[in-house]
Amino acid sequence: MNMLTHENPPSARTTEADEAVFAMARETAEPPLPPEAADIGRALTWTRHEGQRVYPGVSREYAVYSPPGLDASKPAGLLVFQDGRFYAAETFRVVAMLDALIAKREIPPLVAVLVQPGDLPGNPEGSRGNRSVEYDTLGDAYVRFLLDELLPEALNGLNVSHNPADRAICGMSSGGICAFNAAWERPDMFGKVISHVGSFTNIRGGHVYPSRVRAADAKPLRVFLQGGAQDLDRPTGNWPVANFDMATALAHKAYDYRFEFGPGAHDLKHGAAIFPATLRWLWR
Fold first, then answer.
1. Which residues pair with 168 in a beta bridge?
2. Which residues contact 10 (CB under 8 A, 6 or more apart)?
3. Domain interval for residue 272
4. Cα 159–161–165 angle (5° rounding)?
5. How far apart are CA 29 and CA 43, in angstroms?
6. Model confidence pLDDT, tens digit, residues 128-141
7. Phi and psi for 262 in degrees, rounded to 5?
8. Does residue 189 fall inside a structural domain?
9. Beta strand 110-115 pairing with 237-238
10. Number of folded domains in the chain?
């Protein structure tokens, strides 16, 4: 029996409508996609990038989302996804969600960059052999790769804000701890974090993050965590417990955070169901 409970701080409350969305998704392991994902959404164009300095010879795909009618005279926000194809897939439909939310002015105009994990030299495209090195390793290597190599290429010609309050980073599983680690290392570049079933476990030392958060001065981050009771339990750690530990550490340091925990497994079903509400909360 799972006895873990967590109460978000009063400052994390949002509109009654979105509180109802969050409450519904906590009650089922199979929540439906939100209304904003009624359509599949526009297709994205994927481009190949080869690393030069941080991960030399490691190549990957990325795609850039830009909303219809984007005003190039005004800096847009930025949302960077790890495991980008998971979020672009029909099972999540992030393009349709972003189009709908921006069209209704429920979030500001955003450019999104959807990044795939790296393929090692000589390995097939899509093999993702460098994923754990990039995502599970603590330190600033991956965020340096994003900021110095991939994003300048992906965002070339686009007017994107450099204000960290306008910039978010998102991922699931190892991509979730990767997103938090990137913002932790560079809060001057990413002020918002979304972690879906994040791997705050001892794959490559990530289990230290709750104690690290407790020991350090609070950083100017707004953090959204999502976890599930049927998530993984492995020799490297227990994912539900690890996410509770992260939430309580953020609470201890009075971070601006929200933690949504449901009965789901190690997947994006819960995260997809609440994603529009998540973005409205992040940009509230």
1. 79, 192
2. none
3. 10-282
4. 160
5. 28
6. 999 999 999 999 99
7. -130, -170
8. yes
9. unpaired
10. 1
Residue 169 pairs with which residues in a beta bridge? 80, 193
Let me know: does 195 contact 174? Beta carbons within 8 Å: no
Residue for token pair 């449901």: 262
Q: Tokens at residue 269, please?
A: 């079903």
In a domain, 175, yes or no: yes
5: in domain: no
pTM for the whole thing? 0.97
Three-state SS annotation for 149-177: HHHHHHCCCCCECCCHHHEEEEEECHHHH
| Consecutive H or E run containing 237 | strand 237-238
Helix (H, G, I), strand (E, B) or coil at 135: helix
Burial (0-12, 13-18, 19+ Cβ within 10 Å), 18: middle
Question: What gap in Å lies between CA 225 and CA 176, rounded to an integer?
Answer: 9
Phi, psi of 272 (to 5 degrees): -65, -40
For 52-106, what is each residue's pLDDT tens digit? 999 999 999 999 999 999 999 999 999 999 999 999 999 999 999 999 999 999 9
- Distance separating alpha carbons of residues 258 and 253, to the nearest angstrom: 13
> Is the residue at 3 inside a domain?
no
Residue with tokens 């995260």: 271
CATH of the domain at 191: 3.40.50.1820
